[in-house]
Amino acid sequence: MKLILIAGSLALFLSLFGTPVLIKALARRGYGQIIRDDGPATHQTKRGTPTMGGIIIIFATLVAYLFAHAITGSSITISAALILGLMFLLALVGFIDDYMKISRQNSRGISGKQKIFGQVLFAAMFGYLGIHFPDQNGLTPISLNLSTVQDTSISLGAVLVIIWVAFMVTATSNGVNLTDGLDGLATGASVMTFLAFVLIGVWEFGQSCAVALSNNCYNVRDPLDLAVLAAALAGACTGFLWWNASPAKIFMGDTGSLALGGALAGLATTLRVELLLIPLGGLFVIITLSVALQVIYFKITGGKRLFKMAPLQHHFELMGWGEVTIVLRFWIIAGLSVALGLGLFYTQWVAS
């Protein structure tokens, strides 16, 4: 528990006090947000707000995680290292996209195909490496079995696991990216989900088959250290939220949203709760579905729109809802989704 407290509190401190420094540095270089002309008119006031704030989230998470291990003398686990690597590589894809938008002074960065290719490539690398590096109990960071609220007996095999992980990571990183359209919306929802993973990691450690052998114990390689990483991510996002809340002084950009989505999927995969990510990240799922439904409906009806604008949060903006109202109500949805996910997780354990 000491590791979790140190990592979470230090990440919060670094992000809270490091973000203003990053804001000044980005503003001096003119790295401001580019706003689409076809979006809500109220968003034009945000033009020029420093972006690429995901840099400080990743920095605070990494430093806090490493420092917590250094002062406690604990070893860094391969599971957490793989997720950190995945975050960095996805952040690199997002950084290139953000930088190209700024340098071109328009909302077009890298193409959608290039972004998806980078996400799938790095996610597949994460999946491939994750099924290697067994510990003394033969457990690898990623299981070859499909997991719901814990590992099932459904074996997927190496190839299907890599494909499945690539899909999960790509879908989740894009889901967070689509949600990051209003001040603080994606950041606040991410905090709640990361805190849920802290609880899941601690619970799985306490009920690990290596500690408490029973019918409902968990065969997870590094649950406690994954909880430490989740705590660092929650702390970093909370500190950033102070400056990202409306009116935002900085945006995380694709640099942050792609990395956070990758971290969420990575934690769900390594903690063996892959399908539980759907309720835990319910808000991200809903917003992603709104985009998919908009596209499908547009094609089926020959140009009609199901929503005034997608993603869903912009639909409510065009209906006249205030930005803060939308964010708060969507946070309530995110909180209820996390509660549902944790309820399903605990219910399964009790039922077993």
Report the radius of gyration as a whole number of Å.
20 Å
Oligomer: single chain
Give the topology string: H per helix, E per strand. Answer: HHHHEEHHHHHHHH
Note the gap between the termini.
Answer: 26 Å
- Structural class designation: mainly alpha
Count of runs of 4 or more consecutive helical residues = 12
Outline the secondary-structure elements.
Layout: H1 2-28, H2 54-72, H3 78-104, H4 112-130, E1 145-147, E2 151-155, H5 157-179, H6 185-206, H7 223-244, H8 253-270, H9 277-280, H10 282-300, H11 312-318, H12 323-351
Antiparallel strand pairs: 1-2
State the gist of this model.
This protein is mainly α and 352 residues long. The protein has helices at residues 2-28, 54-72, 78-104, 112-130, 157-179, 185-206, 223-244, 253-270, 277-280, 282-300, 312-318, 323-351, and strands at 145-147, 151-155. The chain has one domain (2-279).
Notable characteristics:
single chain; 2 strands; mainly alpha; two-stranded antiparallel ribbon; 352 residues
Description:
- It is built from twelve helices and two strands.
- With 352 residues, the protein is an all-alpha fold.
- It has one domain.
- It has a two-stranded antiparallel sheet with strand order 1-2.
- It starts with a helix and ends with a helix.
- 51% of the residues are buried.
